[in-house]
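Here's what a typical entry looks like (Enoyl-CoA hydratase):
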Amino acid sequence: MAYETVLYDVADGIATVTLNRPDKLNAWTRLMQGDVKDAMLRAAADESVRAIVLTGAGRGFCAGADMEVLTAASTGAGGPVSGAVPRPAVDPTAAVNARADFRMTHSYFPAIPKPIVAAVNGPCAGLGLVIALYCDMRFAGQSAMFTTSFAQRGLIAEHGLSWLLPKLIGVPHAADLLYSARKVRAPEALQLGLVQRLFPDQELLAQTRAYLKTIVEDVSPRSVAIMKRQIWEAQFQTLSEATVIANHEMEQSFGTADFKEGVAHFLEKRKARFTGR
């Protein structure tokens, strides 16, 4: 299936979703919103896919909402940027009973039962930053630049950013980035914890794929899917609640093919052959 605003590719168990409006620094539109969601759900439903990369074409990740859309909104001539374009897609997140928090406009990324890594190349601003932060991890090129930008447009912390950003970097740092809308270069982003890896620009995608290759080849996709759900849902749980859930999931794991394979490949000193079952 071809998309108008994103590229979709699967190789070696990794789906790559590329925002593809390079002439506009991949500025976000309603159509892109629909394309990205459909691509993510497609990757989630594909059993051959075990990890997902989200990146941008050209010299930027995503410059935020398209200024033409914002201009129309400021004059009352257009609807909100968040208006989604419906697409026919089966939502596999329903099968894992994703909580309502992870079924909103952009917050569905945590309900995708596969790891999502944002490979941030160049500018990552406004809504583009929101999208990157909903990924499980962020790897950045040396020239990457981050900014919330909302205060400079007379806007606010949208799509749950006021909940998400303080959890990732702490309240004072989140306040700094939101109130000032200042630009954060890649080295500072690494120091703050906005990103987890920093690579030369020309190596970013290859290094991101190399990291995900270890997840594809060496670990149980069932384990990863459940741990991803545990990590995100634990943000709403007490320690005792998280422990009870973990104990139940551990009991369930003992009866799976992946558990048996996990023990067997260790004892037999061979490469694992996990099936996700």
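Confidence is low (pLDDT under 50) at residues 79-86.

More examples are in the samples folder.
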